[in-house]
Hints:
The protein is an all-alpha fold. The protein contains five helices and no strands. The radius of gyration is 17 Å and the shape is elongated. Bound molecules: hydroxy diiron-OXO moiety. Hydroxy diiron-OXO moiety binds at residues 17, 20, 50, 53, 94, 97, 126, 130.
Amino acid sequence: MLSKTIEEALNKQVRVEASSSQVYLAMASWAETLGFEGVATFMYAHSDEEREHMLKLIKFINERGGHAKVSQLDAPPAEFGSFKEMFESLFQHEVKVSKSINDLVDITLQEKDYATHNFLQWYVSEQIEEEALARNILDKIKLIGDDKGGLYLFDNDVKSLIGAQSGPELN
Ligand code: OFO
């Protein structure tokens, strides 16, 4: 059985994952309108993945006797300036999500909820991968700068990273 404190903290994380999914969906749509099909495909997949992270939390909360809540979200931006800015903001977003997971892990220790602590280890590993991937993409895009040919090749390449972001097995 979850304590109220843990239930609330997990529900906050449900919201964080849902809003990640929304932000990445907006990025996918923006890239698609610009004709960057590879970036769009990558971002649509990333958005789906965040939804999976949210669902995994929802199932866990309900299985442990809590009630997972779906809350209203702020609308993400519709445009992101340049791909460099977009991936910069994706990276910063993932750093924030990691912090939020770490805070959550901390609460489980304070509450001596070792089952939830154990469950959250999947998210800890996932965040390491997601931050590394975002940093890797950002480094590439910084090298390319505004070079059109480079962006064209990047758009082709980025699709191959979709598998790399799947993270630890979902179960
Ligand atoms: Fe859910 O891992 Fe990114 O935000």
